[in-house]
Amino acid sequence: MKPFAAPVEDILFTLNHVVGTADLPDWDAEFASEIAGHFAAFAEGEIAPLDEPGDLEGCTLTDGRVAMPAGFKDLYRSYAEQGWPGLTIPEEFGGQGMGAMMLAITSEIFSGANHSMQMVAGLVPGAARTLTRFGTAEQQARYLPSLASGETLATMCLTEPGAGSDLSRVRCRASADGDGWHITGEKIFISGGDQDMSDKVLHLVLARTSDNGIKGLSLFLCPCTRADGSRNAVTVTRIEEKMGLHASPTCQLAFDGAEAELIGAEGQGLMAMFTMMNHARSDVALQGVAHAAHAYDVAASYAAERQQGRGADGQPVTLDGHADVRRMLDEIDAGALGARAIAHLAFVTMEKGDNPDLVEFLTPLAKVSGTEAGIRGAELGVQVLGGYGYLREYRLEQTYRDARITAIYEGANGIHERMLATRLLGTPPAEAFAAFMAAEGKEAEAVAAALEGWNLARKQLLDNPDPTAFAHEFYLLTRDTLLTALWSRVLRAASAHSDPQRLTRVATRQLEVIAAMRPARLALLGVAQTAGAQPSGAGEETCAVWLRKFTVEQGER
After folding, report:
1. Closest CA to 248 of 108, 394, 38, 66
2. Alpha-carbon gap, residue 250 to 164, rounded angstroms
3. Number of Cβ atoms within 10 Å of the Cβ of 235
4. What pLDDT was estimated at residue 533?
5. How far apart are CA 535 and CA 513, in angstroms?
6. Which of 410, 440, 452, 473 is catalytic?
7. How is residue 252 annotated by DSSP?
8. pLDDT tens, 366-408?
9. Is 17 helix (H, G, I), strand (E, B) or coil?
10. Neighbour-count burial of 214, counting CB atoms closer than 10 A to its CB (0-12 exposed, 13-18 middle, 19+ buried)
11. Distance CA 477, CA 455 (A)
12. Dist. CA 283–CA 268, nearest whole Å
């Protein structure tokens, strides 16, 4: 079994050479490399070794309290002592005050090493961001230091038995009582709703304060303990038996008049909650990327060692000498590299702070592309290993089980696709995306052609009274349009990577696949064939160059 290896070089390559971190005023490439190296060593040496035993043991519920698998409590103590919970929390509250890019580095590595553990610890940055933006000075002073030190872990409590994606159906109610509030109701699917790693748990709860639809929802801070140290009236009634993430307790919580305090303004709960949700969606994108990168590492290593069959010359070859296996490995690799670039671009744009419309458009793209890459990568990884992939020995079956949820939580992928094709399509976020692509088109002919097709499809959908039936195809076209720009950047920067041949091969092939698929995607969207929908002569020449390179590489094996 191959031990977990953090994809540090690939992460730093994308950040330093593909997505424009150099434009960030406080970006320090050398310091980022140090942070990545330190966390990678911790993840490889301490976090990853508990992933498999945690999956096998799972969590238990006894007398209303959740116990994590063996070793998790000590691991979390080490994580907190090293200061990782406070990475992005402002320094005045005991954190390190670093930006979202540092979190993007550590979050992906954390998810690849132990997704279950990351699920429980990973909601702290979003909770801190919500407190920083909406909390009073007194609330910030009371809660942020505890989150930064690791004494407190956070949860996000939205979903109810009758209210999943439709938050207007939330029935959990908060009632004012003097200077405070009390929450009564039930929440389900709460990740880390209880655990025995941190001393305290802070629930961020969306609850109804009036019957005025979504305008009647407010956000509350509901700590697990009252000010006098006694337990608050929040009970874990069950933990779910799941397909994957066995070491992450997914809890059903009952609030029985639990003491809480309002954060932000009454009736503006969704605005405050989406600060936390948008962070979580970007984080989920990197969870998918992490699984794809891990699947590639395991499958590529196995395929390079496993001898199977003979080549054209009649000599024995390893698995990666077979065209179909090479195709699958490159698809896994491309999924991780491409989805990571999209997610990092969203993070960089968010950090710049000068184009919130583009951030709004990139967030659903990142969430869907990252999670689909993770699921597809795990599936193909199992296929590359054959029978051994289906067994537990190489643990790609766990990778698939753990990755599968990412397309469901933080908004099912279909909802994000529909948002791109409906609510965002005729708004400034879509205009911001078009402007970004137009600027990229000045650098590469292929990007200009991709944008031409995307603009035609956008016009077609804007004229359609009900574009929802075309949401999936439009998402694919939009993703590929953006990837055309990002793969072009990868090609230009490939020499900065220690394996430029790998990046050049994958990027070139992906550009050809995207160009070849564009006419079909446009046809499915009802767009007539145009010059911009066809692969250009330059693209055909690039394909020929890629095929020559691939043939030479195969001959060298």
Report:
1. 66
2. 15
3. 17
4. 41
5. 10
6. 410
7. E
8. 999 999 999 999 999 999 999 999 999 999 999 999 999 999 9
9. helix
10. middle
11. 11
12. 24
